[in-house]
What we know:
Layout: H1 3-17, E1 31-33, E2 38-42, E3 59-61, E4 65-66, E5 84-92, E6 101-106, E7 112-117, E8 120-125, E9 132-135, E10 146-154, E11 181-182, E12 186-191, E13 194-196, H2 201-204, E14 209-217, E15 222-233, E16 239-248, E17 254-259, E18 263-265, E19 270-279, E20 293-301, E21 304-313, E22 318-321, E23 324-327, E24 330-331, E25 334-340, H3 354-366, E26 371-375, H4 381-390, E27 393-397, H5 407-424, E28 430-434, H6 442-455, E29 462-464, E30 493-496, E31 522-524, E32 531-534, H7 544-559, E33 572-576, H8 605-613, E34 625-627, E35 638-645, E36 649-654, E37 657-661, E38 663-665, E39 669-676, E40 681-687, E41 693-700, E42 707-713, E43 719-720, E44 726-734, E45 747-753, E46 756-760, E47 774-776, E48 781-788, E49 793-800, E50 807-814, E51 849-852, E52 854-858, E53 878-879, E54 888-906, E55 912-913, E56 915-920, E57 923-929, E58 937-953, E59 958-959, H9 975-979, E60 990-999
Helix pairs in contact: 3-4, 5-6, 7-8
Amino acid sequence: MSAxxxxxxxxxFLVICxxxxxxxxxxxxxxxxxxxxxxxxxxxxxxxxxxNFKDSDWKKITLPRAFNEDEAFRVPIDxxxxxxIWYRKHFRLPKKANGKKVFLEFEGIRFGGEFxxxxxxxxxxxxxxMAVGFDITDYLNKNGKxxxxxxxxxxxxxxxxxxxxxxxxxxxxxxxxxxxGIPKNVYLHIKDKIYQTLPLYSNLGTTGTYIYADxxxxxxxxxxxxxxxxxxNEYSFDKNVRYEVEIKDLxxxxxxxxxxxxxxxxxxxxxxxSAENQVENLNFWSWGYGYLYHVKTTLFVDDKALDVxxxxxxxxxxxxxxxxxxxxxxxxxxxxxxxxxxxxWPAVGMSVPAWLSDYSNKLMVDSNANLVxxxxxxxxxxxxxxxxxxxxxxxxxxxxxxxxxxxxxxEQRAELMRDAIIYNRNNPxxxxxESGNESISEEHMAEMKAIRDQYDPHGGRAIGSREMLDSKIxxxxxxxxxxxxxxxxxxxxxxYCRDEALRKxxxxxxxxxxxxxxxxxxxxxxxxxxxxxxxxxxxxxxxQDSFAIADINAWYDYYRVRxxxxxxxxxxxxxxxxxxxxxxxxxxENYRRSGEVDAMRIPKDAFFAHQVMWDGWVxxxxxxxxxxxxxxxxxxxxxxxFVVSNGEKxxxxxxxxxxxFGERSSAFLFSFKNIQWEExxxxxxxxxxxxxxxxxxxxxxxGKPVSIRLKEMHSPDGFKADxxxxxxxEIEVVDAQGNRCxxxxxxxxxxxxxPAEWRGGIAQGKDNYILSKVLPVESGxxxxxxxxxxxxxxxxxxxxxxxxxxKSIEFNTVSVDNKDVSDYISGHHLPxxxxxxxxxxxxxFTVKRKAVxxxxxxxxxxxxxxxxxxxxxxxxxxxxxxxxATGWITYELEKDAVINKVELxxxxxxxxxxPIKILVDDQEVYSGNTEKSLGYISIPIKPVKGRFVKxxxxxxxxxxxxxxxxVEVTGxxxxxxESISSKDKNNDLRIVEVEFYEEL
Length: 1000
């Protein structure tokens, strides 16, 4: 049983015993679930906002729900349906709303919409991403009378802002999947007439409550905790307010209560109230340690609590400097995934319950990722809060596409960043604000930084953008696909590794016998029967063996230059992407398969490769070994076996007999050539350099498929009968001993009985089997989703297949508050993941080598530019004048040193090779051709003590792209390819950065 399931069972036990502290708002509850009882219709209805409009035949739904959810993964992103969609809801307010303020909060719609209450327009919201709030107090019928809300939404790809007629840059058919309508949660807030405002700048223009810590002392577990709230007095007379703060830990125990000064707030005015106090014995939020506190801020007038806000937050300490990132005083190299913000699932899109967001996001942590970089647009609040709980660092964008923009489109981006920061600034997992997916101007970077400084000056978050390599303002940067190093602001790759593979394809030796590059090089739409993409996609049609190896090779470039390897280092990077996505497809299928898990979150071998490589803050801290692939072949098969391990040596055994030690490459990959298959057990044992056993992995040959195994997964507090909850059911084909059969591809037929709606799964085939009740397992396993109805009861699911023993499971949906205005908010009932424990003490890396400082350089040409080759700026370079005789540069070191390594980033690093020799005090220590790379190359040289190092071109350079698989669907050249042009001469020596190292 996994540790996560143990946590869930423990949680359920505590619920039964009545000992669990749930984030309860009880008598002071002000935020309510408003997802129940909505009606949906596709098309435009001119009278749809009217009270007497007939909507009895509209589809009854529980939000969140996109109108085109059935198309998720069935059609490519650019074929997702667009339309005018209407939503309506009839409701009655609870009695406690009489005489109170009432607000609506929509976590987001797609794309632009107009909102009506009781037939009157209350406003528009048009950015298609961010949350929006409405004060509906004056539009409502009170005293138990019925009210209705109507929302008209247009999810057109070319939607234009009504006032400016400008399109929104992020409404893009490549990356922003168009799940139209209301695909996110809706809440109702009931407040006193003097109240803490909501963090909903869109429409309301309010900033809410801000909780933060400073004077953080990690070793003493203390910090000064601050709380401040924007307060509005809508009474007709002044109010004298006392502001009280209560902090409760995860167990519900009050750890501190304190108050601010009394504040007189005039009638009709808004003011900010605050309080602060020193708090001891804190548990700090960390990677894989989602420790959160409940901070209750209360407004008292005449000692009566009139308004209460509950904020779930955490406290942590950050620092961004010297090319590195510190979390709680410990350096962390960033390792993770660039994930599409839609984070979607087949046949439901992004609209999943909170527990399933936790399940998906925690899988990233389980792969030993510590960062998710959401791509292009701000994630919805449910995913933001989920990352808080599971302990996953976030990089939060606002909204963009692939370049800087000007005019109204830039203003839209700045406004979205402002609104997103205000809405999410209390979420501790956000460590980075991303101002652009590609470089923006210094003027725009300064504007974004000013927004951060105004609305989140104390959050401990760096703001930057991709490609801000020479920015004087950005607080972090990094390229896409390439290696960057820095001694100043942290540089981390915003996305790397473009390889793709279906989980179904093991290798070319076993079913379905997939060689790299097999498959169509075009995509034909099943909807229009037309070719919608015709490019060279074969490079993306890989199998699991090569996909895992590609991930290993790609990560090694970042690991090699991690903190501890010099003055200039890489702070890591994020692999694109984590789960197969209904966006930006490149291969034979109509969706992207570059996930380390598939669309149903079933791991591929690359997932386990990351577990091995990433198990440490910087250096390896836990030893692991994993055998790539399976061990079910036929006697004539001889194949290479690949093992990923973080040990120094790996030995392979088959049925206890040693096959020798593997050839090591990319630090983590061990290859064993021409291994003859034998039925039984294959095992890999890793050792350190002294021969001490560190870790072991094994695989057994599975027997013939005989039966089906089913496992149902749901929220820790049950599968709820609310019309929106989902259960995840795993289907495996197993042998007589219960082992999964890795080559099984049986078609499973399902029979569902009881109060549940079939949503199904995904597999390779027509329409990707979306919503089909016949679904093949792939590599012996698959999963399906079931959605609850509003009726509780027993559900029976039966799975059967020809030649296999069928299997049935029974489970129940549990009753939940399904009123129009419900007390139940599922995210408040989910546990925090604490599996990794608190931030470890001590250094996260050992210093492996020391850089020797360059004090000056000399050349016969362009002497005024020589400093550019060692200025810690990867957008500057030195080059000669194209003559072989001038192809040299000499560096003077700060001291006599025994140099043993040269780190070099030459221009055109991916495509150009330079024949060079290196001399130390005129003694030759290296001669050869530079390797092509994704950034830096490490040149080992003969150790010679000296003060002057000369790099000299010995002949003509050669240019040929060594990375043809890096293909942009736009056809745009990569940055280093752009730097090499037909004007360049073969006698050019061009150096972007150079570093010299000595052993300690």
